UniProtKB/TrEMBL annotation:
<keyword id="KW-0521">NADP</keyword>
<dbReference type="Pfam" id="PF02826">
    <property type="entry name" value="2-Hacid_dh_C"/>
</dbReference>
<dbReference type="GO" id="GO:0005829">
    <property type="term" value="C:cytosol"/>
</dbReference>
<dbReference type="InterPro" id="IPR036291">
    <property type="entry name" value="NAD(P)-bd_dom_sf"/>
</dbReference>
<dbReference type="InterPro" id="IPR006139">
    <property type="entry name" value="D-isomer_2_OHA_DH_cat_dom"/>
</dbReference>
<keyword id="KW-0560">Oxidoreductase</keyword>
<keyword id="KW-0670">Pyruvate</keyword>
<comment type="similarity">
    <text>Belongs to the D-isomer specific 2-hydroxyacid dehydrogenase family.</text>
</comment>
<dbReference type="InterPro" id="IPR006140">
    <property type="entry name" value="D-isomer_DH_NAD-bd"/>
</dbReference>
<dbReference type="GO" id="GO:0016618">
    <property type="term" value="F:hydroxypyruvate reductase [NAD(P)H] activity"/>
</dbReference>
<dbReference type="Pfam" id="PF00389">
    <property type="entry name" value="2-Hacid_dh"/>
</dbReference>
<dbReference type="InterPro" id="IPR050223">
    <property type="entry name" value="D-isomer_2-hydroxyacid_DH"/>
</dbReference>
<feature type="domain" description="D-isomer specific 2-hydroxyacid dehydrogenase NAD-binding">
    <location>
        <begin position="109"/>
        <end position="283"/>
    </location>
</feature>
<feature type="domain" description="D-isomer specific 2-hydroxyacid dehydrogenase catalytic">
    <location>
        <begin position="39"/>
        <end position="314"/>
    </location>
</feature>
<protein>
    <submittedName>
        <fullName>Glyoxylate/hydroxypyruvate reductase B</fullName>
        <ecNumber>1.1.1.79</ecNumber>
    </submittedName>
</protein>
<keyword id="KW-0520">NAD</keyword>
<dbReference type="GO" id="GO:0051287">
    <property type="term" value="F:NAD binding"/>
</dbReference>
Amino acid sequence: MSKPDVLQLGPYPEWDMERLDGLFTMHPLFAVDDKAAYLAEHGGKIRAIATRGELGATRALIEALPALEIISVYGVGFDAVDLDAARERGIRVTNTPDVLTGDVADFGIAMMLCLSRGMIGAEKWARSGDWAAHGTYPAQRRVFGKRAGVLGLGRIGFEVARRLSGFDMEIAYSDIGPKDYARDWQFVENPEELAARSDFLFVTLAASKATRHTVGRRVFEALGPEGMLINISRASNIDEEALLSALESGKLGAAALDVFENEPDFDARFRACRNVLLQPHLASGTVETRKAMGKLMIDNLEAHFAGVALPTPVI
Ligand code: 8YV
């Protein structure tokens, strides 16, 4: 029997490609210059899309693939998939939840510590010889015992908050309602109020059309000139223009960002800000987690074509 044809929207590590190539005929659209011509030639036989959290399975793409049955996302966030377009055609969508939760939470905590304690500048100070030439590096900001807010207490937000409790922090969170599994933490109705009572505000919202620009000017001003924003979710949850203005004017103290609009070609104004820590969408990027994500992404495709229950369906 011939192998199902799978359209690949982004690169995967070699360990995933071996299994993918064994099971499917892969079509690496991301590596093709003339995508329209490629789709015109191969689109008719494509039965699956393998994509990544940040790469769009748009309505236009879905419509260009008449034989499409399933979209498997390598990532927990599926906001880049047009779910309405998929639903209309009965196309299944899967993601890779749980396997990346711990690493993403670790990364948020690491960014908070790194930026607050000035570790990037301090490392350059030591490495460049400035320490020997100019003496002690300036004192930075404390983390433990401060107030933390977690916006979105899903799986990742919960793990962030659990880790923060180890830093003796006063923890509050916002979500659509109070969570019975979060009794030790204060529920706060809205993001502004949460920001006003936080020194560190973590954005861990699962992105959707409804969460677009949930965090904007009022939240940044409530967080204030001593406050820090940490975003390990999606750029769309934040009004990026308002964030840049708040950082540039000093109305917001600092921001640690793993996600941006137009990744990887993000707004160059961020590079000029001294009060930011910029990371290249790396929160889930450990070998352990990436292997687990790849396995789950492929397990979903394999299950679909074997006609058995999908391990982690979205729809
Ligand atoms: C990316 C992510 O998918 O899980 C998500 O939603 O954004 C990430 O894990 C990963 O970087 C692969 O693109």
